[in-house]
Amino acid sequence: MRRFLFMLLMFSLLPSCAGVFFQPQRALVMTPERVGLDYQDIYIEAADGVRLHAWYLPAQGEARGTVLFLHGNAQNISTHIANVYWLPERHYNVLLLDYRGYGRSAGVPSLDGAVLDAEAAIAWLAARPEVAKQGMAVFGQSLGGALAVYAAAHSAHRDRIKALIIDSAFSGYRAIVREKLAGFWLTWAVQWPLSLLVDDRYSPLHAIADISPTPVLIIHGEHDPVVPVHHAEHLYAAAGEPKAVWRIPESGHIQALTRPEQRRRLAEYLDRIFSACNPNSPQEDCWPI
Questions:
Q1: Exposed (0-12), middle (13-18) or buried (19+): which is 212, by Cβ within 10 Å?
Q2: Which of 89, 149, 150, 252 has its CA 20 to 30 A from that of 169?
Q3: What is the CB neighbour count within 10 angstroms for residue 246?
Q4: pTM of model > 0.85
Q5: What is the full per-residue pLDDT of the chain (289 aa) written as tens digits?
Q6: What are the b/e assignments for 56-69, b being 16+ CB within 10 Å?
């Protein structure tokens, strides 16, 4: 009965996407200081005036580059910091953004709003001297990956984005809702009409080709039970060159970077992006496979 009631509630929220895609938590459960990191509390204003909270983690030693991190749909930056806390030690600055309605960010979650929030974070970083000089990588996980694709493709600061990295992202908002409806016997027959109620304007499958020639890296666990790996395959097929996909064996949803060898692999990828690429580099020298 609880599952039935939950599905009914979800259907009532499909037109706005809010209850389906956004599950915010206001309370911060920890700070970077508790894991031994220096940080700054940052407040950024979105284009519609909503005040957003973020953490800026400076690189340890000389910075090799800067990474914007867009987290998944639940909780807030205090729980998702585990996915990027290792980057400052590898000489990368990191900006972790909370979307509106999450953590200390003002406002109410919405898909339109989250798109504005991602662009606001890109703009804030683009104005920093180190990013003007070195550029940034945009890294999103799950919902954050979907937002990252659209933001990178449509940002007014695309010239500052050196790479797009997405982990466990779905290919479309309607597509993932339809799959979830298909997985429940009560809603299997109505998966198509109900999914059409979902706003699909910002779906990454529609936008990912526009990112080229900025490098795109797609990471996905082969055993992801939340967003099946075929979403990564669809995104890879739609993306322009240069592009790469890392299918991680024995890995679930946003679990790839819990492994030291995958963190090391991603750090090496970033090192090549930020050290080898410059306006005079041949394209093949700028693309780490």
A1: middle
A2: 89
A3: 18
A4: yes
A5: 344 334 444 444 445 455 578 999 999 999 999 999 999 999 999 999 999 999 999 999 999 999 999 999 999 999 999 999 999 999 999 999 999 999 999 999 999 999 999 999 999 999 999 999 999 999 999 999 999 999 999 999 999 999 999 999 999 988 877 776 655 545 434 444 554 456 679 999 999 999 999 999 999 999 999 999 999 999 999 999 999 999 999 999 999 999 999 999 999 999 999 986 554 444 455 555 4
A6: bbbbeeebbbbbbb
Output the six-digit token pair for 18. Answer: 């809010």
**Residue found by looking up tokens 């979307």 in the block:** 99
Residue carrying the six token digits 């990454």: 204
Amino acid residing at 286: C
- What DSSP state is assigned to residue 171? S
Q: Is 197 helix (H, G, I), strand (E, B) or coil?
A: coil
Residue pair 207/150 in contact (Cβ under 8 Å)? The answer is: yes
